[in-house]
Amino acid sequence: MYQITKNIQLAVTGLLVATLLGACSLIGDKKNSTVDDVFKQGAIDPNLVPNNVSYVPLYPFINNVRNPLDVFIGYDEFTYVVVDNDESIIDDNEVLMFDQKAQLVYRLTVPGATDITQDRRLHTYIAGRFYTDESRTTHLAAVYHLNNLASGNPQFIDTLKHYICDESRNNTAFRGADDIAVKFTGLATLFDNTLYVARTGPRNELGAIARPDNGVLVFNAAGVNIGFTNQLTPNQSSLKSSVGISGIATLAAPPQRLSGISTSRNMFICLGDQSQNLEYRALSIVSSEDPDQGTVYGENGAFLNFDFSKADRFMYESFRFQQPEDIFAAPDASGYIFVTDSKKDSVFVFSNNGFEGVNPPANSPTKKQIIVSFGGSGENGNGSGPFNLIDPTGVCYNNRTIFVCDKGNNRVCRYRLNTDLQ
After folding, report:
1. How far is it, in rounded angstroms, from Cα 21 to Cα 36?
2. Whether 283 contacts 299, CB under 8 Å
3. pLDDT at residue 4 in the model
4. 250 belongs to a structural domain
5. Burial bucket for residue 137 (CB in 10 Å: 0-12, 13-18, 19+)
6. Is 25 helix (H, G, I), strand (E, B) or coil?
7. Torsion, CA 148, CA 153, CA 156, CA 162, rounded to 10
8. What is the pTM of this model?
9. Cα dihedral 373/95/246/207 (nearest 10)
10. Angle CA(188)–CA(10)–CA(105) in degrees, nearest 5?
11. What residue numbers bound the domain in which 358 lies?
12. pLDDT exceeds 70 at position 15
């Protein structure tokens, strides 16, 4: 059986390469024209409100971050941004940590980092790659588990390593190129610190001893693999497909609230795989308990309710998306669902029942959801205006604000619904 030769001590040494920096190089200074606009006009530019109800830019953006892939606002209230400084190598991917003033306070090198999340213990999980030998020629998917990242003195706890972390692979050998091709493509946590890890890969035979590569692995707070989305379809389009998951979200997300946190185990996933012409690419997956099967994951039929008296567009319309990269569910009372689509260069906003748009204001003459999805790369495909997005990737939501990784413009943008402005 293939032997993993790199020990935990070497993994720690290679992972925790960090440098304290100031942030002016990332968000600009007063010589920067964008920042000049901020100082002149305040946090919101009143001339940038296209409709009575819409998302408007909230400055400052975080600029000059190279190829941002994911963004997450932690329970510790820091903003974490995963960047891919050079797409041709994996050794320079980083996690950048910003304070509430959008100032860079810490950076951490994590090989192949693509996704990040945090649980209620303030433990941080980073999806990346780990080297299997000293020559650093072969690397496999991994999730790095750390604590105290916000302190600037992170402690390495464990690494969930493919394929070892999957209990169904206990009696299977290393699969060579097929295992190397496996990726961990999304992370999300639950109220009890359960961790969901989205996985993609080439092996998706049904009925095999080992689980399909396409699906979601479930880990308890101790890092033990306790489940998998067996009922999802790993090799074809459906309302419970797990083909090429590119993003995952739950209803449990920061901040901590006096009213409590959602105890739902449901999830939202998006499917960015381009090898198949998938009809549905953003899905609501419902978790239920069966006395014989245990936890069962299935489709959410309620999202098939196309009530045109209440909305004009819906998340479950056929071929609504082209290449969704990430999905996030607002944990507050709004319940909005956000989806980024890199081919459409846009962010889509849906209500918690799959209707596109947001609730109309109380004094609005319309009773339908108001569509506030936005984006577009501009006429020449290189637009860098506040509403232009080029190849958007990660998305999250915190304190009524959307954070979007605008990968093609090397920035993280912030937007707030103008009806929420104070």
Report:
1. 23
2. yes
3. 35
4. yes
5. exposed
6. helix
7. 90
8. 0.89
9. -160
10. 55
11. 8-420
12. no
